[in-house]
Structure formats: C-alpha cells, structure tokens
Design a protein that fits this description.
By secondary structure, the chain is α+β, with helices and mostly antiparallel strands. The chain is built from 20 helices and 24 strands.
C-alpha cells in the first residue's frame, strides 16, 4: 500500500505523520520544539537551534518510518510549518546562525525602519503583508547590521521548511506561500520584488528560487536516509505554510469555502483566484498570501480567541477545578454548563474581546477588552456566555469583511482546531453567524495537507480536488437556529457600537497609566 509522509514544524512540536492515500494516519511520532534563550545580556531573545530542529525531525521521522516497517512504501515527503523563521547557510551548506524565533522582539528597530522607508501602504500593494516585527526580511537586516562578518559568508537564507528540505535532499528551494512571508515577494508576479529588494538593499541571490507547492525538488540522499530511515531516492516535494496546507483536506482551496481555525488564535482563511490588494482590505487587517493550491491566493484574518476563555478559566474557574477533581470530568465541562444555563444575550451582558488589542476587523493594538451591561444580578454563567457570544460577534464581523472587502461570499464554513471540541462555542457560532458549520473528521489536517502536496508532486493525486475527494471525512454539523440568529442580529448591532464608544476612553486610560 502506497503511503505519503507529512512533516509539520510547529512551535510546540515537530510531527511526522504517515498517511495512506485516503488520509488515514497509519504512523506518527513527534518531538518537542525547544525554544532557546541564547543571551544573558538579552534575556528576551529567542531562537530555534538548527541542530535541535533537524535532530527532532529526524528522530520523529525515523520512529514513524519504523512503525510503517517498509520505507519503500513511502512514495513522497513534504514539509509544512510556521512561516517567517529562517537561517543563513554558507556555500558548503553549514548553518551560520540560529533561526530567530517569531517570539523574539529584537527586530523591532528594523520594523520601524521598514514602516518609514517602505510604508504599510506600498508593502501591502506589492506583497499583501502587514509589517510585523518577525517578518523574514527584518531578520536579514538585523543580521547584516549586527553580524556583518557572518553575513558576508551567507550563500542562501533558508526558511525553516526550506532548511529541513535542504537537510533531506540538499536542494535550496522554497514555495510561493513561504516566499510570501518574507516581505520581499510580489504577489502579482509570483516572484521577488525588484523594488522591495532595492529598498532593503538585499541581494536577490540570497533568496531561494520560489516554485509552486507540490513541486518535486529532489530526493532523499544517503546521509538523510541514515538519520531518518527513509529510503534513498524518496522524492522530496515542496509543501508550504501550515494553515494553508491545512486548507487542502477540508476543501478550503475553492472560492466560497471558508476555513475557520479555532484555537488560542482564530484564523479565517478564504481562497481567491487573484490577490485583492486594495487599501480597504489592508485597513480591515487582512493578510493576503499565495495559497499552496496552484494558481490561488488566500486571504487570512487572525485574531486572539480562546485565550479569552483561558483567561477567565484561570482567574475565576477555581471552584470548577475543585469540583472536577472531586467528582470527575474536567473543569471546562462545569464552566460551559454554566454558560449554557445563561439565556441568549446573557441577561444583557456583552464582552468586547480585545484583551490583546485587536487585529481584525478593527486594527487597533491599543484597544482594550471590556464587559458592558453588568448588573449585580449577573452570574458567572452570564459572563462566560458573554465571552463566547463576543468572540462569535467578532467572527461575524470578519465574515462581513470578507464579503465587503474581498467580494468573497462564504458558501460553506469548515472549522478545525482545538476549539472545535467546545460544542457550546461551536453551536453558538452557527447561531450568531446564521450559517451551517461543519467540523470534519480529519486527523492532523496540517501534516495531511503536506502529504497531499507530496502525493500531487509524485502523481498519486491528479490535483487538489482529487486528493480532497479521497481524504475528506464529513463530521459534526452545527445547524443554526433561525430564531436565535434573528435575536443575535439585533444584539450584533449593539455589539458593533462598543468599540467606537470605548476607543478614545481606552487610549486615555493607557496614557494616564
């Protein structure tokens, strides 16, 4: 039986999952991703050590391959994972500096330089990027400024997926979705921007040539085979950015199918045939990327989500934690039971989910969270329900932005991620949005998406649609209650007024300390 291997480089774990061609995981293993603090003078600095990343991947792959038994059954391998982190290598393939992690704030001065010399408007019009401190080009500028002798030895800058591909097959290459993370890619031409390279003073030769995801770039060489257990000659195929790979097994590579990744952060992803790079879209907080699906782009909106519930749980869930220890179950069961007993509308309590500022559809890092409508009759259940409803009103705002800014009408909503296990949250999301939401039975969507790209690359799938039809497993479906949807529409109009009403007050609160 033919199999495919997907490798997922995450911030907490390095996963290797072997799938059959129907998307069933037949072997998997993982190793911890170790965040390293390299400097006592700069304790806030954070890096990934290349030897630990490669070593962890090699060990996880070896364990998974051993479980399969016959390495020859694995017909292709592809890598997915986090986006912007990378490292320089010299001509001989030696790494010269650790991978600066997205946790690391050291490139804040380079971010400010980019904002002043390139500007948010021009950057978005070319590459579709917000300018974040952890964007790849800013790490390149930092290294050139602070480690000039080392930088002079650099032959290529490898993003973290490209680094693992290099260790597997010796090729220096990247895919369109990863190149889109660098601040240096032109989404209109699917190539690096001469204008942005010139403004940054970065030599084009430092960057790996970008190719479509699903392109075979090489084969497993002997040294990699010895470390991983993979067979020499196994094709290595370009994967791509993690959440975009996760779109493939759930069908979110087709316009109208919207993926909702529900977790600490909520990410809403929608495919489009061409990049929409106008100021309205930028001002809404959207990030536009090259999709891993060939010929497609993706609009991504990301906002902090379940962290709000974790905050409440940590501060106010002691009684439920004690009850779980005494009577069994988990504290979340008891907390959500209270949220369920509160009526829709939470007795007039509303929550603005801006505890970490706001990134979309309101772009305001200084915004603050708030409960409004509190009276002395409000219960813990009311407040919990208000948090869930506030998160879902925010989701409804994001969907409206998709339609108004990008012209994407959501026809199908598919949800994945740890937050989907919260059935109350998911049902309320369907009720607030007035749309059916499906949670498919997909095992590890992100590495499965990488495996799909490997399968496309070696010809085991004709294309993304063929792969989707073979691996998709329908799951739980949440149907909206039309009566509740109507009620929530009236409340949503009130919710939309909370941020404008508090905006100036919140800024004054921060100014006075």
């Amino acid at each position: 039986m033919d199999c495919l291997l997907g490798i997922d480089l995450g911030s907490t774990s390095l996963k290797a999952v072997v799938y059959d061609l129907h998307g069933n995981a037949i072997a998997k293993a993982s190793r911890h991703t170790e965040l390293h603090r390299p400097s006592s003078e700069h304790p806030e600095w954070a890096v990934w050590r290349p030897e630990q990343i490669w070593g962890g991947v090699a060990e996880a792959v070896h364990e998974a391959v051993t479980t399969v038994g016959d390495a020859q059954r694995i017909k292709g391998v592809a890598v997915t994972g986090m986006g912007m982190d990378g490292l320089p290598i010299d001509r001989d393939g030696n790494w010269l500096y650790p991978l600066i992690s997205w946790h690391c704030p050291r490139t804040a001065p380079q971010q400010q330089w980019w904002l002043e010399h390139v500007g948010a408007e021009r950057q978005f019009a070319i590459g579709g990027n917000p300018i974040w401190a952890f964007n790849t080009a800013l790490r390149i500028l930092w290294l050139r400024q602070h480690e000039p002798a080392l930088f002079a030895k650099a032959d290529k800058w490898l993003l973290i997926e490209d680094f693992i591909n290099f260790m597997l097959c010796g090729e220096r290459a990247t895919d369109y979705s990863m190149a889109s993370c660098t601040l240096l890619f032109d989404l209109h031409r699917h190539d690096y921007s001469d204008e942005l390279l010139a403004l940054a003073g970065i030599d084009r030769s430092l960057l790996c040539d970008a190719k479509p995801s699903g392109t075979v770039i090489g084969t497993i060489h002997r040294q990699a085979a010895e470390r991983t257990g993979l067979a020499v000659g196994t094709p290595v195929v370009l994967g791509g950015h993690d959440f975009l790979c996760g779109c493939l097994p759930v069908g979110a590579f087709k316009p109208g199918v919207v993926l909702d990744v529900v977790g600490t952060w909520e990410m809403v992803v929608a495919a489009s045939a061409k990049p929409v790079l106008n100021p309205t879209v930028r001002d809404m907080g959207w990030w536009i990327d090259s999709h891993v699906a060939r010929g497609m782009c993706a609009a991504i909106g990301s906002v902090v989500a379940s962290d709000m519930l974790e905050w409440f749980r940590k501060l106010y869930g002691f009684e439920e934690s004690q009850k779980a220890q005494q009577e069994g179950g988990v504290d979340w069961d008891y907390l959500m039971a209270q949220a369920r007993t509160a009526p829709p509308g939470a007795h007039g309590v509303m929550f603005l989910p801006h505890l970490s500022g706001s990134t979309i559809p309101v772009v305001d890092p200084r915004s603050l969270g708030a409960f409004v409508g509190l009276r002395n009759l409000a219960t813990k259940g009311d407040m919990l329900r208000a948090i869930v409803e506030g998160l879902n009103y925010q989701f409804l705002q994001i969907l409206a932005g998709l339609e108004q800014g990008l012209g994407v009408r959501p026809e199908k909503l598919v949800a994945v991620g740890g937050g989907t296990s919260n059935t109350f949250w998911m049902q309320n999301k369907a009720d607030v949005a007035g749309k059916v939401i499906e949670v498919p039975q997909i095992e590890e969507a992100t590495p499965l998406g990488a495996a799909i790209l490997a399968g496309i690359g070696v010809g085991l799938y004709r294309d993304e649609q063929d792969a989707f039809e073979r691996v998709y497993r329908p799951g739980q479906v949440y149907e909206p209650d039309p009566r509740l949807t109507e009620q929530y529409a009236a409340r949503f109009a009130v919710f939309a007024q909370i941020y404008p009403a508090l905006r100036d007050l919140n800024k004054r609160l921060q100014d006075v300390g």
